[in-house]
Each structure stands twice: as structure tokens, then as C-alpha cells.
Specification:
Its EC number is 1.6.5.5. With 326 residues, the protein is α/β, with parallel strands linked by helices. The chain is built from nine helices and 16 strands. It is globular.
Length: 326
Amino acid sequence: MSSRKVEISEHGDVGVMKVVTEEVGAPADNEVQIVQKAIGLNFIDIYYRTGLYAQQLPHGLGFEAAGIVEAVGSRVTHLKKGDRVAYGQSPIGAYAEVRNVPAVNVLKIPDFLSFDEAAAVMLKGLTVQYLFRQTYRLQGHETILFHAAAGGVGLIACQWARALGVKLIGTVSSPEKSDIALAHGAWATIDYSKEDVVERVLSLTNGKKVPVVYDGVGKDTWERSLDCLQPRGLMVSFGNASGAVTGVNLGILASKGALYVTRPTLGPHVDTPEKLKAASDELFDMIRSKKIKVQIDQRYSLEDIAEAHQALASRKTTGATVITLD
């Protein structure tokens, strides 16, 4: 089957992304072939485009999409042709009209979830699930700090925190993004473009600071995140939107209160069908009960992928961004 896809043969700016056409063969024994309807855009895609994360060239981009099963491999038993499916983890290359994906990464999506919503929420929603329910299991009484609260992951985090009874302090870059985060459940926001994050956290917590910081920004927020933690608090560094955190001095963790640090990723949290189903079921239940609404604020075509990457990298986006293929 013929399929258009985005491919890069070198690392660099948005100009390295090219739309090419390829023939997609039959799926292997353990794969399913998906005619994709929507693709999720995530900051990790930029990391691979620029070479921050290494991958042998040439290669595609993207890890998250939704669509309809066209064919199944001989060893696949939990899916069949015609199933509505999605995935949030896969081999790189989700920016495509048709592709073969390991069946272990793919699951059926409920009828109440559109393809656009599924593509927007699988990676981002499962990220919040493992952050809040596995990395540091929130109990419902905490006050936490979450960076980039108006982004795709951030808006899901705001809603999930509110549903748990957690007070989420979210950092944002503008009054408009503050309004969006608050409307989605943030307890308070800090505009880091004009406010001192550490001072505001101290004020909002009456000097107690927070037990956990969730930081997907990276280099630019590393030091101030540590300064917001209580003694023996946990720094969850789960992304590098501003660049990678390097040269970590473990002595700093001691001097700031015997702090803990972890650098988790989604993959190990959903690396079996059982783990993926458990995490997805919890996410879908949150959406079904309307505790989480999937907010898609930007839609682009495959041909406009450069514009989509530019908007995401410049922090002009809010909520989720999807590439639509219909």
C-alpha cells in the first residue's frame, strides 16, 4: 500500500523534514497495519529531529497516532481488521498515512474517543498517568509544582490533579496561558517571565515548599526546581524542552536537603500488554467520567509539519497539537 510519510536524512531545523512516498508491505507476524487518521505531535519529536536524541539516519518521526486496523499479522490475537486503535509508544515513524506497528504497542480505543482525541492523548495522557500514579503516587493532599502547565501534558496534569484533590502550582509564560491552566484545574500559576518561581512557591506554600516537582522543561528550570523542594523531596525530570540537564552534581542534592532525582520515561511503565492496558484503562476512565477533557488547540496537515514544529518549539501552542490525515 502506498503511503506518504515524513522523513529526515540529517539533523537540523524544520527544513530537514521531507514528505516522501513509500510502499508499505504486509505486516509481520507480530505487527498490525494501521491506516492512520490522526497523529500526535510531541516535544520528543523535536529532540529526534535536532539530534538531541540519536537515531540512525534516515528515519521518520513521531511515536503517537490513531487509526483503523487494515491487516494483522498471524500471531496477533487481540486486534482485527476494522478495529479503531491508537498507540502512544512505537518505533519511531508515526508521521505517516499507513504504517506497520508492533501489536504489543497498540490497543483498541473506546467509542467515545475520536481519532483526533486518541492521537492527542495517548502519549501525553499516559505520561501523566505514570507521573502521578507510578513515579510519585499522589494521595490527594499534596501541593505540587508542574512546569509548562498550559501545554499538552500540562493541561491533562491540571485536570488529573484536580480530580485527585491535589493542589497543582503550574508555571506558565503569559497571562493567557495562566488563564488556560487555571480553567483546567490548576490551583495556582506562576508566570515565570515576570515572577520569581522559587519565591512564589514559598509564598503559596507558607514556606513549606513542595514534596515533588514535575519538570519537562529541563536545563532552564533545573536549579529553581530543586530550590522548590522540601527536604527529601523528589525531582521528577521527564523532559528537555529547553535542553538536556547535564553535569549533575550530586553534592547539590545533599546541600539542598537530601533530595531525590529521577529521570523517567513512558516506555518502561507500559512495556507489557498488561501494563499498557492498566494505565490506559485508568486514563480512559478519567476521560469517560469527564474528569479530563482532551483539548486540541492546533491542527495541521502532513505538508504543514514544519509550521507545526515551529509553533511547538517557540511555545506558541497550548493544549495538544495533532496532524490530521482525512
